[in-house]
Design brief:
seven-stranded mixed sheet; 9 strands; Rossmann fold; alpha/beta
Length: 205
């Protein structure tokens, strides 16, 4: 069943701007309270970075990232209608030059993704069927993105109660927050350890 609803950008240069979006049963739009918490926790990690809104859906998370100072947003959405609507709103809000909507399946896109050298934000809010029926594929996607992303990049998952947190890479290193049935899981990719110093030559006799 399709349902029209409005979502609002909460803060930043586009504060108060609204999107009229069509939501269907398979979608899992990020509730406003969870979106506010997401950006509050990311804080200074948003400005001056590229924000990837993977499984973009309505696109409001990626657009809000630009509103809050992200240099650019890349929104990955396989539904052609949703993708067209996101770009329409980006142009209408005057940020079309900072927003790129990629009409693609998130899993196939990740295989081809050439990440920038600088840290980025990666936000994953998969539809219900992906959490319930594609668990292994989704976890493989998380691993691939973390492997490719530059050090100090932040990957955030919006999931639901029952998500297998223990199967995430480095499970003890995620920052977990609960909001009703919604869960936010944050992971900062660590910097590689510094190279070992070369062995010193013993002093000559």
């Amino acid at each position: 069943m399709l349902e029209k609803t409005q979502v609002r950008i909460v803060a930043g240069s586009l504060r108060g701007r609204k999107l009229t979006v069509v939501v269907h049963e398979g979608m899992r739009p990020t509730p406003q309270m969870v979106r506010e918490a997401l950006f509050s926790i990311l804080g200074n990690a948003v400005p001056d970075r590229t924000f990837y809104d993977i499984f973009a859906g309505t696109g409001v998370v990626g657009l809000e990232a630009v509103s809050r100072g992200a240099t650019a947003a890349r929104l990955i959405e396989k539904d052609p209608r949703q993708a067209t609507d996101i770009q329409k709103y980006a142009d209408e809000f005057g940020i079309g030059d900072k927003v790129q909507v990629l009409k693609a399946d998130a899993y196939r896109w990740a295989e081809r993704w050439l990440p920038p050298r600088d840290p980025v934000n990666l936000f994953l809010s998969p539809p219900f069927p992906d959490l319930s029926e594609k668990g292994d594929e989704f976890l493989a996607l998380v691993n691939l993105l973390l492997e490719k992303a530059a050090p100090e990049s932040v990957l955030t998952i919006q999931a639901e109660d029952g998500f297998p947190l223990d199967r995430l890479p480095n499970p003890g290193e995620w920052d977990l927050r609960s909001y009703g049935r919604n869960l936010l899981a944050f992971y900062v990719k660590p910097a590689p350890p510094p190279p070992e110093p070369p062995p010193t030559e013993p002093p000559s006799a």
